[in-house]
Write a structure and sequence with these properties.
mainly alpha, CHAD domain, 158 residues
């Protein structure tokens, strides 16, 4: 399972807005770190890890909602949900494919063609879902949401 980033630099006296930016920036970077492997198409572990990281990011957004500007944060949250939904479709296909491949090992001669057909059909759906995820991710990455999360020097986190 994907490990959450550690925030050892945070101190109890840290202003809430700065702490929120640090945490959200770290979680966003952790989520995006798995993107190249997911986009590569066949790394189901990276897909799972990125999905977990996106859920962590969305939870942190809700936690820190009062500490950041509401309008940009709402747009950021909507975009993160869209990315997560697209990623979820890829992950769902991965889970179904794994179950069907396992079933294929114990299938009878009569069952094999149906299972192979289902594997092929879900493989096509997975590729479509991956393409939709890639588009959504590229729009998310370009959307300028990093500007919401300023680093300690006031520079945009990228």
């Amino acid at each position: 399972m994907a490990k959450a980033p550690r925030f050892e630099s945070l101190a109890p006296q840290e202003p809430l807005g700065r702490a929120a930016s640090t945490v959200l920036r770290g979680l966003l970077q952790a989520a995006l770190a798995d993107a190249p492997a997911v986009l590569g198409g066949e790394d189901v572990k990276a897909t799972h890890d990125m999905r977990v990281a996106m859920r962590r990011l969305r939870t942190a957004q809700e936690t820190f909602a009062d500490a950041l500007p509401s309008k940009p944060l709402r747009a950021f949250a909507r975009a993160a949900r869209r990315v997560g939904r697209r990623l979820g479709a890829v992950r769902d296909a991965d889970v179904h494919l794994a179950a069907l491949r396992a079933a294929l090992g114990g299938a009878t001669v009569a069952e094999t063609p149906g299972i192979v057909y289902a594997i092929d059909a879900i493989g096509v759906e997975r590729r479509r879902a991956l393409a939709k995820f890639a588009v959504e991710l590229s729009q998310f990455d370009r959307a300028g949401f990093f500007s919401l999360l300023k680093d300690e020097d006031g520079a945009e986190a990228r």
